[in-house]
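Journal club prep — side note

Before the paper discussion, L.F. wants everyone to see what a predicted structure for a comparable chain looks like in token form. Sequence:
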Amino acid sequence: MATSRLDDRSLMPLFHLACREGQIFDILEFKRKKNLVIFFVSLPDAAFLLKAEDAYARLKEQNAEMSVVCPLPLTEIESFYRKNRLSYCILSDEKREVFAKFLSFEKGEEIAALFITDRFGEIFFQYTAKEVSDMPSFDDIVKSLVFIESQCPECGGGL
């Protein structure tokens, strides 16, 4: 099973990847502004991606941005966007270069991972699994984001 290369409370590695319609998702754009919920999924299935869409508004209420990184070609991602009208970013990492910054895995191995950071890029929660169905629920992710916001002195939380 894939394992994380990162420690809790370490800073998320910087990256930028293609999204849709020529957009680039760059985590530096969110620094000091948004908490991040980043999924890594080697075999994204439509059910998970649509469930993520349903949860996206709740995550945004917690001052978070969400994306899903997958090794699909951008053309497949754009086709899925057009068909399902998603509002969050699915990021194309065909060569798995960003996967490799976050995770240690065998070639061809199925990967499902989740990283949740505060607005400063500090990793508060991370989870790896064999399948996306084994990932924490979106209710649990929202609870994690509530906790992160409560720890932020700049946001009115914390000590």
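L.F.'s comment for the group: The radius of gyration is 15 Å. Keep this in mind when we get to the figures.
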